[in-house]
Amino acid sequence: MARIAVVGGGNIGGTIGEAWARAGHDVVFASRSPEPPRTAAIPDAIAGAEVVLLAIPGAGVPGLLAEHGGALDGRVVIDATNDIGAERLHHAEAYERAPGARFARAFNSLGYELFAEPAIGGDVADLFWCGPEGAGVEGLVADVGLRPVRVGDIDAIDVVDGVGRLWLTLVFRQGRPRRLAFRMLED
Questions:
Q1: In contact, 119 and 126? CB cutoff 8 Å
Q2: Angle value at C-alpha 113, between 111 and 118, nearest 5 degrees
Q3: What pLDDT sits at residue 72?
Q4: What digits encode the pLDDT tens for the residues 55-112?
């Protein structure tokens, strides 16, 4: 089982972190304003983690990586953020501030409701993600109860974000329910 720091304890981070804890992972929630024992300071949480989930508002990613990028060396960093309203949902250009980290993009293309209850009508939802193969991300997606679908290395980030934009459009522009998910079918 992995030692995981969840940076951001809102709906996304809280739901995923709780699912990982139920799966047996050692999960620590981190915040800039820690409230022990529920949350730890970000540097303390990162220091003890093998995996770090970024679940903060997307616009905060460059600043967080500027401040804590060096501490992420050797860790798998899963970026679950979305910078809603920006030209792009991600801030992959900021990843260079943590050159020793292994970045993955996941958990940004569905609503948190699917992380709490990943099946609709008995069908488990797919979660499209990108990042380094063999970094353990696929297992962490499965531990939340979703079916992981890797679409490539981190350079496929815009493909993953395309799924995120589709979800956002269907839910927020068309008014479809937040418990909306995707399933890849193949023959």
A1: no
A2: 100
A3: 98
A4: 999 999 999 999 999 999 999 999 999 999 999 999 999 999 999 999 999 999 999 9
* Backbone region of residue 8 per phi and psi (left: phi > 0; alpha: psi in -120 to 50; beta: other values): left
Rounded to two decimals, the pTM is: 0.97
Residue 16 amino acid letter:
I
Distance between CA 82 and CA 90 in Å, rounded?
Answer: 6
Is 58:89 a contact under the CB 8 Å cutoff? yes
> What is the CA angle 106-174-122, rounded to 5?
55
In three-state secondary structure terms, 184 is coil
- Name residue 76's beta-bridge partners: 51, 102
pLDDT digits (tens, 9 = 90+) for 39-67: 999 999 999 999 999 999 999 999 999 99
Q: Cis ω on the peptide bond leading into residue 37 (within 30° of 0)?
A: yes
DSSP letter string, 10-60: SHHHHHHHHHHHHTT-EEEEEESS--TTTEEEHHHHHHT-SEEEE-S-GGG
